[in-house]
Design a protein that fits this description.
The structure holds 2 protein chains of 2 kinds.
Chain A lengths: L5 H17 L4 H22 L20 H32 L8 H7 L28 H13 L19
Chain B lengths: L1 H4 L2 H17 L3 H29 L2 E4 L10 E4 L1 H27 L10 H17 L3 H19 L5 H32 L4 H7 L5 H19 L7 H5 L5 H26 L6 H21 L3 H22 L2 H32 L10 H4 L1 H15 L5 H16 L2 H30 L12 H7 L11 H5 L12 H22 L21 H19 L1 H17 L1 H7 L7
Antiparallel strand pairs in B: 1-2
Helix pairs in contact in B: 2-3, 2-5, 3-4, 4-5, 4-11, 4-14, 4-22, 5-6, 6-7, 6-11, 7-9, 8-24, 9-11, 11-13, 11-14, 12-13, 12-18, 13-14, 13-17, 13-18, 14-16, 14-17, 14-22, 14-23, 16-18, 16-22, 17-18
Classes of the chains: A mainly alpha, B mainly alpha.
Amino acid sequence: MTPTVVLPVVIGVLYTAGVYLLLDRSLTRVLLGFLLLGNATNLLLLSAGGPSGLAPILGYAEAEEMSDPLPQALILTAIVITFGIAAFVLAIIYRSWRLVRQEVIEVDEEDRRVASRSDTDADDIDPDDLAPEDRPAMHDDTFAADNDIERGLARYYSGIASDDIDLPPTRGRKR
Amino acid sequence: MIRVLTPLPVLLPLLGAAAALLVGGRHPRVQRALSVAVLTAVLAVSVALLLLADSEGAAALSVGGWPVPLGVVLVVDRLSALMLVVAATVALGVLVFAVGQGAADGDEETPISIFHPTFLVLIAGVANAFLAGDLFNLYVGFEILLTASYVLLTLGGSAARIRAGITYIVVSLLSSILFLAAIALVYAATGTVNMAQLAVRLAELPEGTQLLLQSMLLIAFCIKAAVFPLSAWLPDSYPTAPAPVTAVFAGLLTKVGVYAIIRTQTLLFPGGALDQVLMWAALATMVVGILGAVAQTDIRRILSFTLVSHIGYMVFGISLASTAGLAGAIFYVVHHIAIQTTLFLVAGLIERQGGSTGVNRLGGLATASPLLAILFFVPAMNLAGIPPFSGFIGKLGLLEAGIADGGWLPILLVAGGAVTSLLTLLAISRVWSRAFWRLPAQSPADDTSDAAAAAAGPDLDPGPLPDPAEQDQPAGEKEPVGATVGDRAEARRAAWERHTAVATATTPTTDGFGDDDERERPLRPLPRVMVASTTAMVVVTVGLTALAGPLYGVAERAADDLRDRTPYIESVFVGGDVP
């Protein structure tokens, strides 16, 4: 069995594309990047098992002709884990979209506050005192366009559109 | 006997989680009782495992009866049993706290009952990671606990938690992928993932290959343990979660990473090729972490940064690669799990009592609730390493080990460790003096008055609202025509003064506490269960001091085992013949 060059090349391409996508701000691309990285790693595991061979079933093939079954078992486990986590990340992306109507990673207000070296507690700042572009996302009249959308949505889905923001930490609410 | 007990710390929480999920929606009381019972059982089993492992030595269980190198192996030695005991103790304390908080908040009425099952799954993952006898099982343990932690961190799905959760999830995913790729390469190089077998086979590899595998594993674990250049995710994601979740994360999750680093460095790669790198990382973790803590004004963020900082002590002990250093690191891990969890629970209580965790908004807590003050003070001094507490004993052990090593780098680290300890004291005492000691009359609303500013130092004075954004924005770009930078700054200042004037006017200056509508809500009595569980955790941390002698003995014996390596290998391959 001669070693194949296809597998390492494919692994390399998948890793490259995966890292590229992972660095994107868009969460959907981050997820796609994670999936590519996961598949690249699975292929790496596969190639770690040595040359390919016959199915490792006793009586079907001789021990020398069999392929190594352990990496295949590991890959199956890894695929299941990747699948579950991808589903969870999709749910998070959807939730993020519901909350802020965008699925890019937001500017971290806390970081901006630290960067500004302010002695003031963030809690002490009244958003109404800030310039519109400095206000936390989803504050009323952050962006005029957002408010129009908000009002439009509120007409269609009365009671849920902007109501979803900042559920109290542990308190349940009945709907 | 020990083999019968070995799988229970993983199995019990998993089965308990399934049962808790089944009864969850309809019988919340049964669910709570069930999870508390399960964790109590896990604690009992762990204590038994520790006693057995300490008296009889390490033992391995081949799950499913497969002969050793083929199947999954669970290994109990002194280190993993000790970690299990601490993890179970902390988890039980946090769970009772969460039950108290849920009862206080009326959570019985919520349709969501996933907290308890998820929490149990988390503990199962942690236990699996501690017991794993092969690399892939360690990976699975990590994935179990991480998946549960994703759910717990984003519980409720509010905007802040989703944002923090995404950071955490993406970073964790990256480290998991790195770990899995490292496993693939290890398997390609050695043909096994069994750790006892790897301990022998990895040594036969060429040095360059060893270094590659070691650094890949270490990077993956250092991300999970939040060692400095890879720690930025932690203070960003932990503070937003509910108090019990942050507490258990802070106590346990990073320490699982530390545990994995200990295993990698002692069992798999005892050559010490990367010890120097680890020492520099430890120094940077300690110093940068604690400088971050000093700069913060929110108790939870301060605690998150001290968490990062004190991971440095453990890495320092590991990187010394001596028995004394490892013993110090193991003792410090035990101490730090308990102490950090306790402090986050106390922060949860502070938030309930004071309505905030920002130190500039709190004040007079010592008079308002003396019990809370004691609950904070004792573990805080313990964290800073004031004698006679366990933090002092752990730090002393590590610093002694560093001096015993004698090299210039360990001595530098000893100095860094001492400075970090002092800065921890500074950060913690700032919380104490502002949130607890400051008279209520001096608290936030009066900060602008001269008396308070003079009494409490210049940095309490908020001053005019600083705004760096307006300096680098060209005037008029986002403003109505005619507005200039100066106008905007002026308008800002006026708005700020108006804001503070209103706040001052509504605050009574006589007693100052208890009847302002915004900040000073009437003091609610703290829920008894929450206080009781926090008190119990504080007692545990003090107990660590009382039991420091025997505990340090166990840590030293565990460190001996780790340095020796044969107890672990021979527990898996009876007789020591490694195929």
